[in-house]
Amino acid sequence: MTTTTAPTLTVADVTVTTDHVGRVYAVIPDDVARILAVASREGIDPQARGIFFESVAHPAGSWAASTVRTIFDALLTSPDVADDVHEWGLGQYRTWGGGTFYGFIVGESGWDPDSRWWRDYAHTGDLRVRGTAAIASRSRRHLAGTCTF
User: Fold this and answer.
1) CA–CA gap between residue 49 and residue 31 (Å, rounded)
2) 49 has a pLDDT exceeding 90
3) Rounded to whole angstroms, how far apart are CA atoms 54 and 67?
4) H-helix or E-strand spanning residue 112
5) Nearest alpha-carbon partner for 99 in 118, 125, 79, 81
């Protein structure tokens, strides 16, 4: 498990936007994105190929889980997500404390707000949070509040 002293993310730090085809992105400060990107790959073999992998479960009180909850809160205040919270996997977050974000999380330097697309994709991999950020709901008992990607 990654232990780090990282900056605290606030809802105001998160920019919620969409790309040119309507997919939702949470754009966060680079220093937060880099650490969260590492957390999203923790427990996944670096030689693994394919797309269906899940990180280790970060404890409910961990920096990663807290940061993802902040991102979820920012997403739910955005009109881009509020119109249909179920479409983006966050429909049960407010009620049950868990959900999965079916959008993208990226650092500011990896996102071009003018073109609404990735900036220098080949060279900003350290700013892309892999997988789908998820918080386990209260019904998951001992896993409740844990965070995976």
Assistant:
1) 27
2) no
3) 18
4) strand 111-112
5) 81
What is the rounded distance in angstroms from the CA atom of residue 61 to the CA atom of residue 24?
Answer: 26
Instruction: Name the residue among 100, 32, 25 with its Cα closest to residue 63.
Output: 32
Tell me how far apart the alpha carbons of residues 138 and 146 are, in angstroms, rounded to a whole number. Answer: 10
* H/E run at residue 24: strand 24-28
89-107 residues labelled b (16+ CB within 10 A) or e (exposed): bbebbeeebbbbbebbbbb
> Cα separation of 87 and 57, whole Å?
24
Interatomic CA distance for residues 110 and 108, integer angstroms: 5
pLDDT in tens, 69-108: 999 999 999 988 877 878 888 888 888 899 999 999 999 9
Assess whether pLDDT exceeds 80 at residue 116: yes
Structure tokens, 68: 């993802």
pTM for the full model? 0.89
CA-CA distance, 95 to 106, in Å (whole number)? 26
107, 27 in Cβ contact below 8 A? yes
